[in-house]
Amino acid sequence: MEDTEAARLFREEAIKGIASGMSAKRKVRDRVERESNKRKMKKVGTCTIWCSNLTYAWRHFLSKIAELRYIFVLWRSHLKKIEGFFGTGILSYFIFLKTLFLLNVPLFVLSFCFITIPQLVYQPSPTVNNASFTGIELLTGAGWFENTELYYGYYTNTTIVMNPPLQYNMQLAYLCAGGGYFLLCLIILVHRMSKSFRTNYVEASFVKSQFVAKIFTCWDFGITEKEAAKLRHKSVYTEIVELLAETHKQAQELTGGQRCCRVLTRLCTWLLYFAMLGGSCYLVFFIAERLNQDIIKLISDNLAAGSATTALTLLVMPLCISAINFLLPFAFSILGSLEKYKYPRHELYISIFRTILLKWAILGVLLWFWFNKISRSSSDLACWETYVGQEIYRLVLVDFVFLLLTTFISEFIRNLFTQCCCKNLGKPEFDIARNVLDLIYAQGLCWLGAFFSPLLPVICMFKLFVFFYVKRISVVMNCRASSKAWRAAQATTIFLSILLLTFFIALAAVGYSIFAIKPSEDCGPFRGLANSYQSVLNLLETWQGQANLSWIKTVVDIIGSGYCRAFVLCILCLLVYYYAKVSASHKILVERLKHQISEEGKDKQFLLKMLQDASPKKTGSQNPDRKSASPQRPTSSGATPANQTGSPAKSPDQGGKDAFAMAMAARQQHEAVGVPPKDY
């Protein structure tokens, strides 16, 4: 009795051919398997047992590490409580805030370890900073902070030599730390967005009924505490309500006049929106242009006065921008309610688009002003990079203060007013879209300012950390879930896409300042160069003189040539075209397979019907007067019934084959005519 695959298949076929019942075949199969297993059983060696125990211990260790890691997940209990009481919508905001907080950690680590620590070792700022600290610098970012490691202008351009063999090039460290973070951030954002898109759009499109998945698979059977079970129950209930709100929509039949009125209303709202957008951008540019000379004079005087008037002058533009970002989204929400979109998600996406376009436009105006006005006024300004870093510092700080004030006024004060005076007003709803876009705007400022202020990421991390607890307390105590339920998963993908676009805007701005703008002459690690990238070219020139490193310069020249860029662009275009065509062909193939499966189901129903009509029937059992046209079973003596005209009796298998042939012939006949067959 061999143990090969061929022998096993031969035994199975032999057992199937035994002329006995199923119970006897099962007994024979079990006995054969026992005999075969006896041959396979061998004595296990000590080394094998030791390896098995070691593998088991390692897996047990990994499971314990996973449990410990789950315990130390950041804000786990808070997120679980928010999900239980408010559902996936508000939870998505806090998960997004957590994502941004963790995203800033590598930025701070890279900047602090590779830029700030070497500068502290080389020349700490307290040894050369003689300015007095009055406290007002915390609001303005100028004065005492100007000659510290907070800003670009303080960092040296020399190569730090600790020991004769060890040298640290500050210029390359400054570029590589920023470039490494932007590359890491790009990889993380693209991965998260692609994963979210695949989960929430691609894979979700194949799910026919999401209610079945929610009802039968969403419960966590690991819950043992009563409070946790209540939280999970509330979470499941809220998710099902969101699905019902998305699925059960009532179609509204509009007349021609109503359609025209709605189109005109939306046209007017969009014109009003663009008017507000243009007015906001012009106001920001006007304030920046008008206060430019005053701010430059105050910075050049190192904020000696330290008065409130001086600080207010520096804070005018950040206050104006924060006020615009606070007030106009409410106006956009009113415009969205007037447009009366059919689906709640459409109103949400339009509001998101309008708000983020406003923030992008304001950032674009500021970047244009900084790079085209400030960077060219080198005679009036000693270090324009530090000026830009201070402006972004003030924007971050004032934005944080505004977010705290809006949380206090729009949520706490309104809830207090509702409880004391007007109970019919109800608790305020938590505006997910507006709050998430505020986070995206703050993160965009962090990306923009990281190059001009290397320690700005730690300020943004502190801001997000404090804001999480402020929002968490405010949501639990003062807010209620939104009355318009919407799909949080798809909205998360939209938010990640907007965050990625904001990242590209910041990357383009920082790249433009590195490659196209001349650095300041008297400050920063790139002083005296044509542009910041010139430091890399100088290093390559030094390598070219060395025989073992000259090939690096050749490779960089080839990669940076226009022919190589054109070749890479063509390859990328071809890849995009290829994958687009493959995706389209796969989509067509899926549709054809779905149609084929549907047609096969109809074929089976049609064939079963024809088989039932063609199968032999017992005469006189149910309808004695009915004569069957189908072949009848032969009698025990082998004679045919009297009403059979001598035709030979057919077996059930033969009758099934005839039925199949009849069904296919009928199908072909009906397809030729173009009319679907009966019962099809």
TrEMBL record:
Sequence intervals crossing the membrane: 90-117, 172-190, 267-288, 308-336, 348-371, 447-470, 491-515, 558-580
Q: Which domain of life is it from?
A: Eukaryota
- Signal sequence residues: none
| Stretches for region Disordered | 614-680
What is one Pfam family matched by this protein?
TMC
- Record's compositionally biased regions (Polar residues): 618-648
Q: Cellular location of this protein?
A: Membrane
Q: Which UniProt keywords apply?
A: Membrane, Transmembrane, Transmembrane helix
Tell me a GO cellular component.
Answer: plasma membrane
Residue span, TMC domain = 383-489
* Its membrane topology: Multi-pass membrane protein
Spell out the family assignment given in the record's similarity comment.
Belongs to the TMC family.
PANTHER family according to UniProt: TMC DOMAIN-CONTAINING PROTEIN, TRANSMEMBRANE CHANNEL-RELATED
- What is the protein name given in its UniProt record? Transmembrane channel-like protein 5 isoform X4
